[in-house]
Amino acid sequence: MATITELKCAVRETLESRGVLGQLKARIRAEVFSALDDQREARPPLSHENLLINELIREYLEFNKYRYTASVLTAESGQPEVPLDRQFLANELRVAEDTSSKSVPLLYGLVSHFVNSGDNGGKVFLRGASLPAGPTTSNTVAGPDA
Hints:
Elements: H1 4-17, H2 20-36, H3 48-63, H4 67-77, H5 86-92, H6 106-115
Helix pairs in contact: 2-4, 3-4
């Protein structure tokens, strides 16, 4: 007959091998963060840009098997539990994909585009997004003439 210690070890090994133990730990961590989060301070509404950015990050995290981090991101950010459809995300970002690019997260393709672009001397001018008003006075990133 198995002892309690042997039974605990067997359950732990089974949960680890199925990947459930890590998921449980991540869920507990996310719940602790949620409990500690100051509920009196209203979280800013999830803007369209933040929704897209969070989804790019979640896709990257899940692709790289950072599922625990992805679960905390989802809990902390207010991102919907169900991931956005990849085609919807690509359409919103105005990204065209080929068959090979669909095997990796969209974030890889975006970074690759900028790192490998043929224009070596030019810089991309970034404009501020329509983020909710916060403590900063401007949402625009300084351009090349600044």
